[in-house]
Write a structure and sequence with these properties.
With about 130 residues, the protein is an alpha+beta fold. It contains one helix and ten strands; from the N terminus they run αββββββββββ.
């Protein structure tokens, strides 16, 4: 292979490597949790969140949610926590949680999840309103 072709091949490989690294770093930002219903009645209920792939809007099934927290941080009461437990869901891309909204006001659901095929962790904080 002449030196010019070798040089061009090296530059092409370098460019492909840089593109791959950029895509891998930005990939987790392509996913988002959204509340199905941002208002729920006070008490024991079920909160549902949808995980979507933002570029195409498609639901993302089979994520592994490994950390959850429910607190009243949006109302300046982060120390006020309550029970949250993952519940079964029949819909792909919908993740359901049994929650105990002990008081009216704004509650924050914090989630950490692994999305299939991605090396990074998706972290999300969603705010819902507990009504009477």
């Amino acid at each position: 292979m002449p030196p010019t072709n070798l040089r061009m091949a090296c530059w092409a490989l370098l460019a492909l490597g840089l593109l791959g690294a950029t895509n891998a770093q930005a990939a987790i930002a392509d996913y988002e949790f959204k509340l199905v219903d941002a208002q729920l009645k006070k008490g024991q209920t079920v909160a549902a969140v949808r995980l979507i792939h933002k570029p195409d809007g498609k639901p993302v099934p089979d994520a592994v949610i490994f950390a959850t927290r429910l607190d009243m941080a949006p109302d300046d009461m982060e120390a006020m926590t309550s029970a949250i437990e993952q519940a079964p869901s029949a819909e792909p891309g919908i993740y359901r949680f049994k929650v105990d909204l002990t008081d009216e006001g704004r509650w924050r659901i914090s989630l950490a999840a692994k999305v299939q095929g991605e090396s990074e962790t998706l972290q999300s904080r969603l705010v819902l309103q507990a009504t009477p």
